[in-house]
Write a structure and sequence with these properties.
The complex is a heterotrimer of chains A (123), B (526) and C (452). By secondary structure, chain A is α+β, with helices and mostly antiparallel strands. Chain A has a single domain, classed as Beta Barrel (OB fold (Dihydrolipoamide Acetyltransferase, E2P)). In chain A, 20% of the residues lie in helices and 37% in strands. The longest helix of chain A is centred in the C-terminal third of the chain and has 9 residues. Chain A starts with a strand and ends with a helix. In chain B, helix 5 packs parallel to helix 11, helix 6 packs across helix 7 and helix 11 crosses helix 13. The two termini of chain B are 45 Å apart. The radius of gyration of chain B is 26 Å and the shape is globular. With 526 residues, chain B is an alpha/beta fold. In chain C, helix 8 packs parallel to helix 9 and helix 11 packs across helix 14. Chain C folds into two domains: 119 residues, Alpha-Beta Complex (Aspartate Aminotransferase, domain 1); 260 residues, Aspartate Aminotransferase, domain 2, CATH 3.40.640. Chain C is α/β, with parallel strands linked by helices. The chains are: A alpha+beta (123), B alpha/beta (526), C alpha/beta (452). Chains in contact: A-B, A-C, B-C. At the B-C interface, helix 2, helix 3, helix 4, helix 5 and helix 6 of B face helix 1, helix 2, helix 3, helix 4 and helix 5 of C.
Chain lengths: 123, 526, 452
């Protein structure tokens, strides 16, 4: 199991062929209180960089881009009733969606935790 | 990123002043009266009107009688007057004081305009009356249109758009129609990143792709970047002038010439026309279309959010594509209303109808009364005083507030500040809420997006020097508190009818209509 | 220049504070060749109140005032009595001269009013929720069509032949640019609406069916079957109400299953005003709320736990979502919404039902009387306060001749459908509580003379 990060402040946790995607602690802090999350339905296909989900706070809206290509196996439906999970546990229970990777080599272009920390520190 | 994705605090951090105030059994505080909802104080069997007896006839409703309760509460006339009077007192308004909401142009609303709009000859005429019975109404539209054309130096005007954003749509549809008429398929509209949100939303609503154009460090459009992007796929640019940083786009003519040379059109967002009316004509700067917010420049009332009115002036190139209907003076001096029927002969290129009937007549009468009151000389003075007042605010406060473009020269009708220099943990919202306690409506906050923690102050020309000095003093004191880190600002306002409201709760669990408590309880019990 | 408080002395002292030598120094960013030096030529100079009033009154005097003559016009704008307290209250400066409630702590008056308005509209329409108003009925109607496209991801809208032709016109204009397909034809002079025909036209590409209730000819029919058929095909039923008073007597579209109900609120509180400003009403089912256009007011609490109201779900809107917003609307029709809401509060359900009874009773009385005019037939079997007469000759000419006799005798279908010669003899007649028995008698008598 390994965790990757993107410059769009998403994290990707890979287990076998399935990647779990969410937004980072830094991203949730920027957004403020999250009030609504729209996650993709099972079976939807995305190319790397497609708009896959939307996260909204009171005065902000942000697209969440799929960091890798693949097919959605599950969206986190709990977020519909408890969007606050994105604030309280962004890198755990506040995950957005799981997708089956169609091109695992895309992971090579992402950052590891240390790299992401450095990236955020430079912002 | 394409969207506004910077959140900001919407709940107060801690309530420092809680418990320090005395409470009353009613919740009222002397003249500040709490008021329940009509659903809590009225009932469906009460009414505040007397009606004539209904004739005794056999119903012809086709068996569709509404039998179930509608549950609309009624109040007596006295209760109604009191309900809305009490509610009104919980609002800030121009009539109460300076309302420096940048970009919105909250200027004094003369009551002559209200009186004129209520003349039965304007207020009590039907939009489809035979033309011979509404010559005076058409004359108002014609006369106001002529003023707008002359003030802007343009060739034609469409009067029907209902508000500024509707006017933007009108202008963009005219551009698209003109391009289509020459068989030119273009797909992109360029919009500076400092633009009002309505600009990209309008271009998208009209079927265009939107591309951002960056600003330069001096707050103006990056002309080189814009010109570099011009290509056969660019239908036009939407540019606000003066722009949302309160600065005049000096190079608009250069931009217009380049856009025209590349086969595109220039849309000017006229939201800030009040800064330059009588000082420069957009037509002289190469603009092809511009909407004019009658509720901004020409002082029709904002009414708690509308109605607005957004006539659009057009260049020679775009005028033939303007929407229906419009007023035309016939050779015999009578006025005609050109609708779908006669358009085929008179106005074959029109892109069609944008709205039922003919536009915001009630706003036309008010705006015309305002314009006639000021005249050509007064309107020029309007722009000069608006700009003078804004620069006075800018220069009186730049020692305590960061003015990101202050060094670049004078501003136009609004002064822009940022939250740079505030103590750690203090943001624009704290200053805004602190200003409420001082008895002022805050300025526009967090807009334009190109400036961090932006504060856009538009005093308008209808403020006296004394009023400005009082406002400057209040803003100075609150700014100093934000710089010193006065924690009580986090819980401001302390003296408004409500403390900071929980917008997060409102958005997470939206309650948009009132529900009977009994019903809520029954649902909860299920 | 009575609206400008600064005097010369103020200006001089302020320029000194700024450090500018003259006012021109503040306009240096306008290119010199474009800068105007004096007042624009060919335009009058400033004028005192009296002079402006004289000019405006002269223009107002050139119009025939609806309230001074027998008046029977409708077709999307209706003349009702507006209680005096409505206009008094909307002219309170705290309502009239406030703006969109961006700072909720000092805008609770407007916000609570909007919350009440939304609830009134939702209940009137039989919808779960309603927004804080749109420009007018015609633009609300197009917004509903685009909302149905977003929800269904389909692009073909079926417009009933009974939909107001101006509403159809707006939709046609917009659809040409957005690429939506519209299916529509002009109405025919039948007693029945086209509800059954619409059911047959729904297919898998249909995003919505748009039906007016009562329709442009004043006809009413049950929408229940149409709602079921529309939804069974995965499309939405949009009902359009141009006369909200009708819903004091008629079942609401929401009760009959409509997904979105839009309307023109002008009838209550707003007045005729030659067509604007009016107020667009917009309601829908709860499940579609995030796809709604326009502002929404919601209930919440303040830091002390007191109930209060805020604008909410703003992330749908242009100032946040920019090119991805549900609509480009910014300014709404707040003051007209206030007038609507006050009028509705004065009426209450009891008053609204009573008002609807008077309207329907007077309309039936008028229809019966006009049917006695030789050569005139009433088209409708059922109607609320508006019905269509079929005359033996071109109705447009008759309307003009009636106006010459100072009677505003309805809206001719020739004015509304200039390209449809088959409709030329149709005359749409509206009757409200403001119509007197004497008005009806004058209308019938003069009509008979003109047709003789």
């Amino acid at each position: 199991m390994s965790r990757y990060f993107t410059e769009e402040h998403e994290w990707v946790e890979v287990e076998g062929k399935v990647a779990t995607v969410g937004i980072t602690e830094y991203a949730q802090e920027q957004l403020g209180d999250v009030v609504f999350v729209d996650v993709p339905a099972e079976g939807k296909q995305f190319d790397k960089g497609d708009e896959a989900a939307v996260v909204e706070s009171v005065k902000a809206a942000s697209d969440v881009y799929s960091p890798v290509s693949g097919t959605i196996v599950e969206g986190n439906d709990v977020l519909a009733d408890e969007p606050a999970l994105v604030n309280t546990d962004p890198e755990g229970d506040g995950w957005f969606f799981k997708l089956e990777l169609s091109d695992p080599s895309e992971l090579d272009g992402l950052m590891d935790e240390a790299g992401y920390k450095k990236f955020v520190a430079g912002l | 990123m394409s969207m506004n994705n910077q959140g900001r605090p919407t709940r107060q951090v801690e309530d420092v002043a809680a418990g320090s105030e005395r409470t009353t059994s009613t919740g009222n505080r002397a003249l500040m009266l709490e008021e329940a909802l009509i659903f809590e104080i009225g009932d469906r069997n009460r009414t505040g009107v007397d009606l004539p007896e209904a004739p005794k006839v056999a119903s012809r409703l086709g068996g569709l009688e509404r039998k179930a309760a509608i549950s609309l509460p009624g109040l007596s006339e006295q209760e109604t007057v009191r309900h809305y009077t009490r509610l009104s007192r919980q609002n800030y308004a121009i009539d109460l004081g300076l309302f420096p909401l940048g970009s919105c142009t909250m200027k004094h609303n003369p009551r002559l305009n209200e009186k004129m709009a209520r003349l039965p000859g304007f207020a009590d005429i039907h939009p489809l009356q035979p033309i011979q019975t509404v010559q005076g109404a058409l004359a108002v539209i014609d006369e106001l249109g002529e003023w707008l054309v002359k003030l802007t130096g343009m060739a034609g005007v469409a009067m029907s758009p209902k508000a500024g954003a509707h006017g933007e749509l009108c202008g963009i549809l005219a551009i698209r129609s003109a391009l289509e008429a020459r068989g030119d398929k273009r797909s992109v509209i360029l919009v500076p990143e400092s633009a009002h949100g309505t600009n990209p939303a309008t271009a998208a609503f009209a079927g265009y792709q939107v591309e951002d154009i960056p600003a330069k460090p001096d707050g103006r459009v990056d002309v080189d970047a814009l010109i570099a992007r011009l290509a056969p796929d660019v239908a036009g640019v939407m540019i606000t002038n003066p722009n949302t940083c309160g600065l005049f786009e000096r190079d608009l003519k250069v931009i217009s010439d380049a856009v025209h040379a590349a086969g595109g059109f220039v849309y000017c967002d006229g939201a800030n026309f009040n800064a330059v009316v009588g000082k420069v004509r957009p037509g002289d700067l190469g603009v092809d279309a511009m909407h004019i917010n009658l509720h901004k420049t020409f002082s029709t009332p904002h009414g708690g959010g509308g109605p607005g009115s957004g006539p659009v002036v057009f260049s020679e190139a775009l005028a033939p594509f303007a929407p229906l209907p419009f007023v035309e003076r016939l050779d015999d001096g009578r006025l005609a209303l050109i609708e779908e029927e006669s358009a085929q002969d008179h106005h074959a290129s029109s892109f069609g109808r944008m709205v039922a009937f003919h536009g915001q007549m009630g706003m036309f009468t008010r705006a015309l009364a305002y314009i006639l009151s000021h005249g050509a000389d007064g309107l020029k003075q309007v722009a000069e005083d608006a700009v003078l007042n804004a620069n006075y605010v800018l220069r009186s406060l730049e020692d305590v507030l960061d003015a990101p473009f202050g060094a670049a020269g004078p501003c136009m009708h609004e002064a822009l500040f940022s939250d740079a220099g505030f103590a750690e943990g203090f943001s624009t919202i704290d200053l805004a809420k602190g200003l409420i306690d001082e008895g002022f409506h805050p300025m526009t906050v967090y807009f334009p997006l190109v400036v961090h923690g932006a504060m856009l102050v538009e005093p308008t020309e209808t403020e006296s020097k004394a009023a400005l000095d009082q406002f400057i003093g209040a803003l100075r004191s609150v700014a100093l508190r934000a710089k010193q880190g006065d924690a009580s600002l986090h819980s401001a306002p302390h003296f408004a009818p409500r403390r900071r409201l929980d917008e997060t709760l409102a958005a997470r669990k939206p309650v948009l209509v009132w529900t009977e408590p009994a019903i809520e309880q029954a649902e909860a019990a299920e | 220049m009575r609206y400008l408080p600064l005097n010369t002395q103020d200006r001089v002292s302020m320029l000194a504070t700024i450090g500018a030598g003259s006012i021109d120094d503040l306009f240096v960013d306008i290119p010199e060749e474009a800068r105007l030096t004096g007042p624009i030529r060919g335009l009058p100079m400033h004028a005192p109140e009296m002079a402006v009033e004289r000019h405006m009154k002269k223009l107002a005097g050139q119009n025939l005032v609806a309230g001074e003559v027998p008046f029977f016009m409708g077709a999307g704008a209706y003349r009702h009595h507006v209680p005096a307290s409505v206009d008094h209250l909307i002219q309170r400066g705290e309502f009239l001269t406030a703006y969109t409630p961006y700072q909720p702590e000092i805008a609770q008056g407007t916000l609570q009013m909007l919350f009440e308005f939304q609830t009134q509209v939702a209940r009137l329409f039989g919808c779960d929720v309603a927004n804080a108003s749109m420009y007018d009925g015609s633009t609300a109607c197009w917004e509903a069509v685009t909302m149905a496209r977003r929800i269904t991801k389909r692009g073909k809208a079926l417009l009933s032949s009974g939909l107001h032709p101006h509403y159809v016109g707006v939709a046609k204009t917009m659809a040409r640019f957005t690429g939506d397909a519209l299916v529509h034809q002009a109405p025919s002079l039948n007693a029945e609406t086209d509800v059954d025909a619409l059911i047959g036209q729904i297919d898998k590409d249909t995003s919505c069916v748009v039906v007016q209730y009562p329709d442009i000819l004043g006809r009413v029919s049950d929408l229940t079957a149409l709602a079921s058929a529309t939804q069974a095909a995965g499309a939405l039923l949009i009902a359009v109400v141009t006369e909200p008073v009708a819903l004091g007597a008629l079942r609401s579209p929401g009760e009959m299953g409509a997904d979105i109900v839009v309307g023109e609120g002008q009838s209550l509180g707003v007045g005729l005003q030659f067509g604007g400003p009016y107020v667009g009403l917009f309601g829908c089912k709860q499940k579609y709320v995030r796809q709604m256009p326009g502002r929404l007011c919601g209930e919440t609490v303040d830091a002390e736990g007191k109930r209060g109201f805020v604008l909410t779900l703003s992330t749908r809107e242009q100032h946040i979502r920019r090119e991805k917003a549900t609509s480009n609307i910014c300014t709404n029709s707040g003051l007209c919404a206030l007038a609507f809401s006050i009028h509705m509060t004065l009426l209450g359900e009891k008053g609204l039902r009573g008002l609807a009874d008077v309207n329907h009773g007077m309309a039936v009385t008028a229809a019966n009387r006009l049917a006695q005019v030789p050569g005139v037939a009433v088209l409708n079997d059922s109607f609320f306060n508006e019905f269509t007469l079929v005359l033996p000759k071109d109705a447009r000419t008759i309307v003009r001749e009636l106006a010459d006799r100072e009677i505003l005798g309805g809206v001719s279908l020739g004015r509304l459908y200039p390209d449809e010669p088959g409709l030329a003899n149709g005359l749409v007649v509206a009757v409200t509580e403001t119509t007197t028995p004497e008005d009806i008698e004058s209308f019938a008598t003069v009509l008979q003379e003109l047709l003789a």
